[in-house]
Specification:
Putative ester cyclase; Cyclase_SnoaL-like; single chain; 9 helices; alpha+beta; 11 strands; Nuclear Transport Factor 2, Chain: A; NTF2-like_dom_sf
Amino acid sequence: MTALDPQAVRRKLTPSEMKARMVYIYDETNKGNLAVFEELFAPEFVSYGGAGFGDLHGPAAFRDLYQQFLVGMPDLRIDSTFMVAEGDIVFVRGTLTGTHSGDFMGVAPTNKRIEWTGTAVFKFGEQGLCVARWQEWDGLSVLQQLGVIPTPPNAPTPNLSHAPEADPTAADVDAERVNANRALMRRFIQEVWNEGNMDVADEIFAPNATSPDAPGLPDGPQGVKIIAQMFRSAFPDYHMEIDLIAAEGDRVAAHFIQTGTHQGELMGIPASGRTVRFGEMGLLRLENGQVVESFYNPDMLTLMQQLGVGGNAPASGA
């Protein structure tokens, strides 16, 4: 199947076809072909807001946003590194790179090489066209790299060198494994994050489990416990809700909505009493029933703004 096969356009896509469609979209945008959005996004397409910007309606509006990023970074490139597809949605995590040689939504050119990660969920309709998109991105890191906000002293650098998949369109339809992995994600969120049962992390995460997005934390369940306890201490009424989830093969991905009242210190920010609501993408890879690798894109920029720190910023994702 080619990405523009008219037969595929007129029917619901399989998980492999959705992933092939995403590979094609990124290949074309990396070549500067923004007409791909009109070709493969439905007229009713919506890119839902969050991470610093509002909803976008229609492929032309999304193309215009992408064009703004090309003005700021003409060599902008997206490389997908992790996909999970199930039903009518596909999660795509990618690494984005570009040279800040133009105005980037109000930030004057710095000629710095910028690199960040983002995760997006794309929903495909009955006619094989993309009808909706949700995304989270590491906007805080982008602003730090641009010098808009300071980087904390001695801050560790995330490992963004995750190798692309050998065949990102391959599909694994082992129903038993898929159901088990989906249940594991739900248990992780409910029992560890919402209920604060940290012992469950020892069951879910392998001793050597890594999280490239959190290089300052120890491997294995201990790193999970540290970050979960930090947020639950800062937000005693903390709650995480899964609003999108997909499982496939050895991996499971979800989009979370997090809420809470800031009643304790968080990363040096004193309690403010403010209520927060922000999104996050989480992707887990499993072996023998345990997580061995995890990736996260929390909307830290929105969280910091809601807590009264940081400033307004441009936004983008995978």
